[in-house]
Amino acid sequence: MKSLISLGPRQVVFGDWEAPEILPGQVLIEVAACGICGTDLHVYNGMPASWPLPGVRGHEFAGTVIDWADGVDGFQPGDRVVAQPLLYCGCCRFCRSGQTNLCANLVLIGGERPGGFAERAAVPAGALFKLPEKLSLKRAALVETLATSVHAFQQNLSGILRSVAVLGAGAQGLFAVQLVRLAGARLIAVSETLPHRLATAQRLGATHAVNAREDDPVESILALTDGQGVDLVIEAAGKAVTRQQAAQLLRPGGTAVFLALGAEPTPIDFMSLVPRELHLRGTQCYTNADFVLAIELLASGEILSDPLITEMPLEDGAAAFELLASDPGEVIKVILTPKAETSPIA
Ligand SMILES: [Zn+2]
Ligand SMILES: [Zn+2]
Known about the structure:
Blueprint: E1 2-8, E2 11-16, E3 26-35, H1 38-44, E4 60-68, E5 80-83, E6 86-87, H2 93-96, E7 107-108, E8 120-124, E9 128-130, H3 137-140, H4 143-156, E10 163-167, H5 171-183, E11 187-192, H6 195-203, E12 208-211, H7 217-224, E13 230-235, H8 240-249, E14 250-258, H9 270-273, E15 279-282, H10 288-300, E16 309-313, H11 317-326, E17 333-337
Parallel strand pairs: 10-11, 10-13, 11-12, 13-14, 14-15, 16-17
Antiparallel strand pairs: 1-2, 3-4, 3-8, 3-17, 4-5, 5-9, 6-7
Helix pairs in contact: 4-5, 4-10, 7-8
The protein binds zinc ion (ZN) (2 copies).
């Protein structure tokens, strides 16, 4: 079957890959749409990962059910589904306590296992979520991304949220802006270097936009809070400089959540962090509950995904990766579609 095959850093090709076998407990999906994740891009750019080479990536995908293994119940051909690609063991202490996102034995479909940059993918039945009619397959490819932001909020939001800074307005940052808008924040300041992303952030609810190429984000955002700092920072860029800004932007007792991965080492000033009781929090993917909520938020239109999406055929996947790695311009999130003629928009 046709797939996008990763060969090494900055090397992907469109070509033939072994069609997936349906193993016990699995369902075979015809992939309609698969997003390129920030993590895919980091690995493409050389971030170390335990993912095999050559390999088929793509963990943000939705499609329709074609077939299933003997003994699997509850599916019909043509069922529209989205995959929750982070497979957990169900047995370790974290799984047993409901923190499946922290499982000691995580395996990613589209990481360790072949994923959705292909015509078809085999997925354990329990990792598939059926889609409400109102949610198109193209939009459903964004469920995984939104679920990551939802998880960050479910873990870190409590009480009244008044002021928030979002650093980086890629897909994660733009979902974060919308979630804090839903949560009722009065001040939502976004810092970003790409003008189109800043404009999109404002369209989706940001109250202030800072172009980090022109202005100092720390100075600009502190000025909006009379120098006090914000309640919550969402760091969605994954760079040393934005992580440091996150710590500098917090009010005493505030929380910074680090959504983006990125291997760059980051010195943090602990002489400022300790006496101000700052909270620096990591966040790891999502649980099934976050996935369910993400599906509902996209289906209801409370969270918009269309302004983020650029659709490209899977065969142009190599060009899509290169575009995102070099100069994304007005492109925010690329959704690759294996079958251009059966456009997943409907
Ligand atoms: Zn992802
Ligand atoms: Zn586990």
